[in-house]
Design a protein that fits this description.
The complex is a heterodimer. Chain A has one domain. Chain A contains 2 helices and 4 strands. Chain A is elongated. Chain B is 45% helix and 16% strand. In chain B, helix 1 runs antiparallel to helix 2 and helix 5 runs antiparallel to helix 7. The radius of gyration of chain B is 22 Å and the shape is extended. The chains are: A alpha+beta, B alpha+beta. Strand 3 of chain A pairs antiparallel with strand 2 of chain B.
């Protein structure tokens, strides 16, 4: 992911390699999985557990779908560029 | 060129069929060829007769009036309100976004339907199915919106 912010005061840009974030996200997910599982089981009878499960799935799907996203906004004095390669 | 296409062109040359008929027949032959045709057009980025380029990205661009940028008044670019905007959204993200509909609780859906009805739109959001979404995204391939604002700014929404 490439993020670049440019204005009169600063010119700041960096490359964020998503492949390095994925293992980190997986570790966090594994650590939190017992809590997530308990939360889903507790909320299942009320019907919200299903939504929690679907939200988790949707978050993962959306993350993968980000590839190719490009946002380039340029004002008179500032510029913001975000690109997911 | 396939035999069928040759035959169609020969029939057109011999005035056995009209240009419209030939166009329709060529389109039918192309659609019959299936995925091969689409892949070819994805690579070249050109459209053949009656063929659709598979939608991969939704592009939204806002360009300020270039001439107006030199004026002191009346230019959004000069005012700093609107600059150049170029957004490319992958279709996969749109697809994932639409599928988030399944996360919306039925009570909220009822509220959405009610609000739509109040606005005069008689549409049941629950009736949107996954197959419809695919059809909708495929149909987006033909979409192109060009809007020119009062201050010369141009907004373009199209699929590539």
């Amino acid at each position: 992911m490439h993020i670049k912010i440019q204005n009169e005061e600063r010119d700041f840009g960096f490359w964020l390699p998503l492949f390095l974030l994925i293992p980190l996200a997986l570790v966090i997910l594994i650590i939190l999985s017992p809590l997530i599982l308990i939360a889903i089981l507790v909320t299942w009878p009320s019907g919200w557990g299903r939504y929690a499960l679907l939200s988790l799935q949707a978050a993962i799907v959306s993350f993968w779908a980000l590839r190719g996203l490009e946002v380039d906004v340029q004002g008179r004095r500032e510029k913001v560029y975000i690109s997911v390669v | 060129m396939s035999e069928n296409k040759k035959k169609i062109l020969e029939m057109l040359a011999q005035n056995k069929i009209s240009a419209d008929d030939a166009y329709r027949l060529l389109s039918a032959v192309d659609s019959g060829e299936g995925g091969h045709g689409n892949a070819r057009h994805e690579n070249t980025g050109s459209k053949g007769p009656g063929e659709k380029v598979k939608a991969r990205y939704l592009r939204v661009t806002v360009t300020p009036d270039e001439e107006g940028a030199n004026k002191t008044e009346g230019s959004l670019f000069k005012d700093g309100k609107v600059g150049r905007v170029n957004v490319r959204v992958p279709m996969s993200l749109i697809r994932a976004g639409i599928k988030l509909k399944s996360l919306v609780p039925p009570e909220a859906m009822d509220k959405v339907n009610k609000a739509l009805k109040e606005k005069g739109i008689n549409f049941d959001v629950n009736s949107i199915k996954n197959e419809d979404i695919e059809e909708l995204i495929d149909a987006l391939g033909d979409m192109q919106i060009d809007v020119e604002g009062g201050r010369g700014e141009k907004v373009r929404v199209y699929v590539e």
